[in-house]
Design goal:
Elements (H helix, E strand, L loop, with lengths): L7 H22 L3 H22 L15 E7 L3 E7 L35 H5 L1 E7 L4 E3 L2 E6 L5 E2 L18 E7 L6 E5 L6 E3 L6
Antiparallel strand pairs: 1-2, 1-5, 3-7, 4-5, 5-6, 7-8, 8-9
């Protein structure tokens, strides 16, 4: 009694086709760590601006109201990480209860504690060991830099020492933030346009 089966030629043909498909898929499986890092940081900056647009922090009758603007702050305490928060108590620190929630996992955009989102730890995830601010340095400490946004989405720098005089408004030069890692073949830079606050990866203007 004959049983239906594949011929040797058919088996060889299937194996060849599978090999071709696998070779085409392999480049897509390999991680592009630099692109992942750039997308992560760009999303965080844009989310900070989104929070500023939807949560108006303007209080013209308070001298230090600019300090409460939504901001993203990069710190290097025990490895580079970022915080997204509004400094509601107007002191020198960003506290855990002032941090935003990461919509991807429901945890905090904060760099400490059990409730911290893993997405903020950019050195642990991508090996980023240097973050350089050009033309927009807003420094609260030697190891921390930030950029903030107002209710119109406009960028501000140096809001930790700000008063209501609007000198923090970035209007003369575009802000560029460069990220370096030994794991990358080259650095990547995110630009935040002056006045509008539009952010994109340099070299990927449509990103």
């Amino acid at each position: 009694m004959k049983r239906p089966a594949f011929t040797m030629l058919e088996l060889v043909f299937v194996i060849v086709v599978l090999g071709i498909l696998a070779s085409l898929a392999m480049p897509r499986i390999d991680r592009d760590l630099k692109q992942e890092a750039a997308d992560n940081v760009l999303s965080a900056i844009r989310y900070t601006q989104h929070l500023a647009l939807t949560d108006n922090k303007h209080k013209y009758n308070e001298k230090d109201w600019l300090k409460s603007l939504w901001q993203i702050r990069f710190e290097n305490d025990s490895g580079f990480a970022y915080i997204i928060a509004s400094n509601s108590d107007l002191d020198a620190n960003l506290d855990e209860d002032e941090a935003a929630l990461d919509p991807a996992n429901g945890k905090l955009f904060y760099n400490d504690g059990d409730h911290a989102s893993p997405n903020v730890f950019i050195e642990k995830l991508y090996g980023i060991d240097t973050v350089t601010f050009n033309d927009c340095a807003g420094t609260s400490a030697s190891n921390a830099k930030h950029i903030a946004f107002d209710n119109l989405g406009r960028p501000h720098r140096g809001v930790f020492a700000a008063t209501y005089d609007y000198k923090t408004y970035v209007k003369n030069k575009d802000c560029q933030i460069t990220f370096s890692s030994d794991a990358f073949d080259s650095d990547f830079t995110i630009q935040i346009n002056r006045e509008t606050g539009y952010a994109f990866i340099v070299g990927q203007e449509s990103s």
